[in-house]
Write a structure and sequence with these properties.
The chain is mainly alpha-helical. The protein is 72% helix and 0% strand. It has two domains: 102 residues, no CATH class; 50 residues, no CATH class. It contains seven helices and no strands. It is elongated and about 75 Å long. The model has no long low-confidence stretch (mean pLDDT 84).
């Protein structure tokens, strides 16, 4: 699914797990000293803004602490905290979209590489089969040739 700001806003507004994961994702972008001080110290466009910094960083600390002790994400905040966080997190949908895109890009290069390697292996195997089937190429070792022909016959039978 391609994420958009509107989809993210909808998820934040309606799903506690998404909300708490969103708070954690923005919280993780805060600097370590901001997390400890529970406030925004740097106006760098990353993490919580100055108005939300204290409250949202404290929520991030709470979710992080509880989830590490085994509490399920989506159940770490009180109903009152959830109500406030839902309103505040709407403005961070753009950052969450960037995070989602960064995470997707981080996965894509290796996925694409392995898919390409699989495709090349399939093509190479087909080429080798064609060469052997037409008699243009044969193994030097007769045992290897016999084993290969037995494997081909088995594959064709299945």
């Amino acid at each position: 699914m391609n994420m958009t700001k509107d989809i993210i806003k909808n998820k934040l507004a309606n799903d506690n797990t998404w909300l708490e994961r969103g708070v954690l994702a923005i919280w993780k972008r805060q600097t370590q000293d901001e997390k400890i001080a529970t406030c925004t110290k740097y106006h760098n466009g990353i993490g919580f803004n100055g108005v939300d910094g204290t409250f949202m960083t404290s929520l991030g600390n709470q979710i992080n602490r509880k989830s590490q002790s085994g509490v399920k994400i989506g159940t770490c905040l009180s109903p009152k905290q959830i109500t406030i966080a839902r309103k505040k997190m709407q403005k961070y949908a753009g950052q969450l979209l960037l995070i989602a895109n960064e995470n997707q890009k981080a996965k894509d290069p290796m996925d694409a590489f392995y898919a390409e390697m699989r495709e090349k292996a399939i093509q190479a195997d087909k080429w080798i089969q064609e060469q052997f089937n037409t008699g243009q190429v044969r193994f030097i070792d007769p045992d290897m040739q016999r084993d290969y022909e037995a494997q081909l016959a088995e594959m064709e039978a299945n």
